[in-house]
Amino acid sequence: MGAKLLCLFLASALTAYYIYTPLPEDIEEPWKVMLVTAGFRAVGHLAEVADQLGLMHYMEALMLITSAEYVAPTSDENVTVMDTEFSNVAVRLYLPRKASDGLRRAVVYFHGGGWCVGQAGMKGYDYLTRQTSHRLNAVVVSVNYRLAPQHHFPVQFEDVYSVTKFFLQSSVLSQYGVDPDRVCVAGDSAGGNLAAAVAQQLLEDSEVKTKLKVQALIYPALQALDLNLPSYRQNENKPILPKLLMVKFWSEYFTSDLSLREAMASNRHVPLESSHLFQFVNWSNLLPEELKKDHVYTSPTYGSPELARKYPGFLDLRAAPLLASDAQLRGLPLTYLLTCEHDVLWDDGVMYARRLQAAGVPIVHDHAKDAFHGVMMFVLSPVNLAVGHRLLNRYIEWLNENL
Ligand SMILES: *[C@@H]1O[C@H](CO)[C@@H](O)[C@H](O)[C@H]1NC(C)=O
Ligand SMILES: *[C@@H]1O[C@H](CO)[C@@H](O)[C@H](O)[C@H]1NC(C)=O
Prior knowledge:
single chain, alpha/beta, Rossmann fold, 8-stranded mixed β-sheet, 16 helices, about 15% strand, globular, binds 2-acetamido-2-deoxy-beta-D-glucopyranose
């Protein structure tokens, strides 16, 4: 009896220890956030074990969360939902049922998940894109681009680019009753990265006649050159995207070769011959004083040219939109950008905002002091966060006014 009680006590103490995460004071509903964090941490640990045992690749184990959250395409009284293909890439379409006086607006949406996991049919994404379609009376194309580790850069980019290009054809827009002057690309996290890259590439593509009205970037990842920015340092262990997971996502986008991951983890992956690119991610110039805090800028430590020759993707604009020159940024459409304070990617967003402003691109930058990465996905039970709803509503309302 005594032994059983002792075991129970130890088990509860261990569980409590596992779940308890010190959180910043401004995070609301801390117990819910702790449960989410513990859940993600547990899946991460299991994925690590499965990977070490050779049972499955780390990212394939994480993908089990995506599968658990999957919902089939289901129409409701307001929106018709269907899975189909555009240009041989899988997409989920949301078509409003409400009659429209004229042409509709459209959003081409790219989900997040570090280019490795996630899908348009995850509950959280289905909710977000369905709400967007219903409340804007807009056509939403949510893209199921191919993922790592089966596919590496540039496949993810090429998939979302070819869907966007296909959709922007006037014959396709008119088939869906879409106004060519009111189309936007949007995405969160890795999807925000893809949206920014697509918007840039469209400017250079003489085959595309339709111009985007808006790009909406929700806590996007925008560069893989410096993975030791102040926001990476101070948010190294925040929910739900610790620095090491972001490093895994970045390196896996380009290759499963662990030597890139190790080099990125110690921020020694960029070769000397690419040193000129650091001007575009130089936080010493690009961050306002209050974000630099007490962090000291040191010059980059350069890595082996061999890695960059094998995996040149991390130096490529299409993977790292912050590496665009000012001339390449000019002409980008009106931009909505959301950053979160407790996010390794905060500084990526701030630096992009700064560079867009300098290039004369109209931009609205919202910063959520009380939010962590990925928070807009937590808007359904069992983890329904008020801050997630607030940011999601703000994004949809902004689009409603500006698209
Ligand atoms: C359909 O739209 C109405 C009006 O906005 C809303 O009250 C209702 O909940 C919506 N239905 C679904 C299934 O979302
Ligand atoms: C970054 O900016 C600082 C301050 O302007 C400058 O001293 C430093 O040389 C720059 N570093 C790189 C690699 O561009």
